[in-house]
Structures are given as C-alpha cells and as structure tokens.
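Job type: complex structure
Entries:
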Amino acid sequence: METSRDDFVIAIRSAFLNKGTQQRFSLLGLIIFSILFLILGGINFKPINYLKIAIKEIVYRSTFIVSTPENFIKEGYLKVQIHLNLYNINKKNELEVANLRAKDLLNEFLVLENKRLKKIVDDYLIDSESTFAKVLSDKNSPFFKSIIVNKGSKHGINLGSIVIDNEYLVGKIVEVNFTSSRVLLLSDLNSKIPVILEPIGLLSILSGTGEDYGIIQYNKNESIVESDVIVYTSGIGDLFRAGIPVGKITINNSENEDQKIEFFSDFEQLKFVKILSFKKEEN
Amino acid sequence: MSKLNKQNITKKILTQIPIILLFISVLNNFDFNYLNLKYFSFNFSYILIFYFSLKKSFSLVYSFIFIAGLFNDAVNGTPIGMSSLIFLLLCGVAAYLKVITLRTSLIKDWISFVLTILMINSLSFVILNLFFNYEVSYINQMVNVVFTSLLYFIFSFLFNFIEGNFNVR
C-alpha cells in the first residue's frame, strides 16, 4: 500500500515538476502561471489587461493571415454554388424588384412621417458616427459566435456600438482593442437584445442559441406569432435605434415556447460591416 | 559533411512540425466549422497535444503550449489563461500516463484521452459558467467531446504513418 502511494507521488512529481529535455519551465510552474492569469484577468488587473490587448492585436492579425488559404477555398466553394443557382436567383430577384419598387414609394412617405412624429415625442435617435470595418476573422466556434473587425479605439469605436451588414443588424461590439474589436453576433448564446415583432407590435427579447437562428424569449402569448412576422429592434434601453431589421420568424410551433428567428444577414459570409453609435438628436 | 548537415536541418524542422501545427490550429480554429454541419465539431489541439505529449514529449515545449493557449483564448474570446490551463493539464495527464505505462496500446491511450477531455471540458465549463458568467451549450460540449475522442483514432494513425514514413525521431 505504502509502495503504491510512493509510486503515485513519484509519477506525479516526475510529470508535473521535472523539467524534461528542451523544457525550460516545469508544467506545474506554467499551470500556476495560467491560473494567475485567469484570476488577475478576472479582477481586471491593469497590467494583465494591457498584456491581453497586446496579445489580441498580434493574434487577430496573425489569424487573418493564417486563415487566408482556408478562406480562399471557402470563397471558391461559395462562388461555384452561386454560379450554379444564378438563373433561378435572377428570376426570383426580378419578381422581387418589381414588388419592392411599388412598396418603396409608399415606404418613403411613411419614413418621413415617422421621423416627423418621433421628433415631436423626442425619441428620435440619429446616427452619430458610422465606420466601415473589414472582418478579419469569422471563426464561429461551436461555443462562441463572434467576429473580429479591423477597427478599434484608434478609430473611435466604443463598447456597445452596434454592427450592421447592409441594413440588417449583426451584433454589437463587446471588446475594443487599439486597432481591432470583437463583435458578439446575434446568434451567440450570450446575446440578448430588445426587439419588437411586427405587424403585431409585440415587445420581446431576442436571444441567440449558438446555432444559426435566434429565439424569442419571454413571449407569453406565443400563439399570435405567425410565420410572416418580421423582427425589428425595439429601441428600448436606448442601446439600439428602433426599427433596425433583424430577421423573420420562419417556424411557428405552438407547442414550442421559443419561436425560431431566421436572421436576415448571413453571418458566415460577412466581409465588411458598418459600426454605428447613436445619440438623441439635439433640438 | 554537408549531407549530414542537411539531414540535421530536416530532422530539426520535422520535430518542430507538431508545435507549428498547434499554432496553425489555434490561429485558424482548424475544426471544419465552415462546412456548417449542425452536430459536428472537434478540437484538433487536444488531439495534437495529448498524442505528442504521450508519444514524443520533446516535440512540444510546454512554454509554447502555454503561449498557444493564450492565442487560443484571444481567438475564441474566452478569458485569457483558460486554454493555457486546459492545454497544460492535458499535457500533465499525458506525462503522468507516460511515466506509469510500460507498454502502450492505442485503446488504453484512447480511454485515457476520453477521460481526460471529459475532465478538462467539465473544468472549463465550470470556470466559464461559475466565475465568468459565460453561457455554454451542454450539447455542443458533448458533441465536441464525442467527435474529438472519435477522431483521436484517425489522427493517431495519421501521425504514426507520417512518423513511420518520414522517420521523425
């Protein structure tokens, strides 16, 4: 019994304390160092924060370079797919354009009227700053859905700024470095944004799922959500401007408490995004 | 003489391949996520670290693994130090197994690998969830563990094959 315990101690000591050939540090030393990093990072210890920023600056640029061959293959695959579907897409688009032209005239009038009314009730947010950014890395790991863009505090990006692709909401800035930032995508499990479901006008919270769709949470009356519902930002909390299109509800399952939302923007194919921050218009 | 020098250089480069692969895999998140398969994800870094720590510990320098962990955290957005801790624990278990095992077999290695990744994934889940308030999906974690453990066989055959053909010693 005594011997086996001794063997165990010797084996552990040999594995964790002994420095093998070519090893400059013992395993235990580095493990303690990692734990220190975690703890000090957790309590926002300033030198660790600076080190974090430096590491991120280096890593984000390196990721972009290292991912080039993979991105090249990915883009080639997507291009071939688009070419194969070109005829059908064009036919569908022609029909859609004809419909949209008719709707556009009506929309223009409604937008102007809405702006006028919102100014009266002092709830009109204007775009204070907008910056275009290139997506450096879009590695959607199964655990965290985020992208890295090439604009940071140097370019006036702030925490909480919103990120859009065309006119569709993509996510918000959750980490700002000197020349790069991280965008938490709407599909991430940790993403929660206030939304409104139109045309029924129901206020709710859109939550990410870690998959390529979102769900509506805290919706008591789920039976009224039907398949043609469009989801917009509600503007509650003044974080987002109201009325930014987010997605549409595709599946209506009355037994399921959560409603699946298909995002308008394809997060897998983001190349450039627009970063916006809003403020209330001064009268 | 020059032939001998050339051989030495080639040998040096070949022994550095695991660490180069590790850095590429953490910077590129080498996991075929772009295929968009709903229930498919695996962690190549775990396989690489465990295999080489067990078979060729001189190929992976611990300090490089520590740095690779920091890079992995920066890419994934996890708290800095998290992946380093996980990677080093994986190395520790592999080093311990190496010390206590006289005759290795793939099945024994695989069982140890599965138990180890279950342990370290649970640890990372607990740290992320309890101390850093990250929400992590149980299903994705389990899928990742299952595929990582299954792919250990394929990659260990592949590494053995490469080692046999290129005589990396």
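Summary: Residues 37-166 of chain B form one domain. The first helix of chain B runs from residue 2 to 28.
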